[in-house]
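Morning, I've got a small favour to ask if you have a moment. It would help a lot if you went through both lines with me. Thanks so much in advance, here it is.

***
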Amino acid sequence: MGGGPERYVGVGERRGRIGVRHLLGREVRAGRPEEVASALVALHGSDPATVYLAVGARLAGSVKTVGETERALYEDRALVRMHGMRHTVFVFPAELVAVVHASTGVTVAARERASLVKDMARAGAPDAVWLAEVEESALAALGRRGEATASELALDEPRLREQFTYAAGKSYEGVHTVSTRLLRVLGTEGKVVRGRPLGSWTSSQFRWAVAPAHPELDVAEAQAALLGRWLAVCGPATEDDLKWWTGWKVTEVRRALAAIGARAVALDEGTGWVTAEDVEPVAGPVEPWAALLPALDPTAMGWRQRDWYLAPELRPQLFDRSGNVGPTVWWNGRVVGGWAQRADGEIVWRVLEKEGVGREAEAAIGAEAERLRGWVGATRVTPRFRTPLERELAG
């Protein structure tokens, strides 16, 4: 890492890289959910349906999207749902669990446990020693059961039902149950992971399971490994993009860039970074491509600076007030509109940016809508974070 930019990478090449490396061009689509997760590094898991919709958009054949993704998540355990960057739930390839935990989870976990102990103390609840006893008992019960809900674990460890008042006297005062907060802490610490949902693949209520064993890695080495893996998929990216995506301090980002020998390139936004092996130009897919990506899709949420693939004037209709992106329609590496599912199951879409979107594009977008409806079937999918355009189209 060092020196001036080696070359300029324009918007056209960056959009072409999306088509190839994010498996969106028809000729580069994947055959299995594991391949999708590995290619993208992480699939957003805050909205459970996003995982399946993001996988389905990138599979060569989407008929078995749900069954194959459930197999990878809950039978083979090739994919793991856990807390990661920015204190957000993601689905990662199993081989990245240790890397994510060391690079990001350890810091978050320490903060979460300290916050829980502090909140309990303020409420006059039992102390950290009591909490440790409950934790040990709960983990043992979870190990015996294999998978369990918080309510089921409370049958074995009744102290999990204890409640305490949070932020007493404040406008956001509330009552927390020990099980809710403790399981969250154990999740960030890498001791438990989310198991099968209680309902269908769109359900947001999950069972818990003991996390698979993984080695404890050096933090700096893990950060370098994660940043290098992501940059190979999403590079070039600015320092601001990297800091936002990882949730790390700028000093940590710079240390990781130096560790992997990242190379500077010039972008319209300023200096961008690529891996040492990725300096040469990259061609996009041979055929033009269209995609219907879900809310919180990892491509749409991949960078903090998005003007090169998403026009600023489209954002009010495609994002909610918290900055969460809704379902998007893509044409050749840029967002051109949005989509939704109506109550009768129909997939409807609208192009918001007309420039460069002719008959070929509309035919390709329509074909993707039909492909999506074909495998979603009778399931109704409503994004957890709804946006103005999605609400309007859903009707």
Remarks:
- Residues 9 and 346 are 39 Å apart (CA to CA).
- The chain has two domains: 1-76+218-395, 95-210.
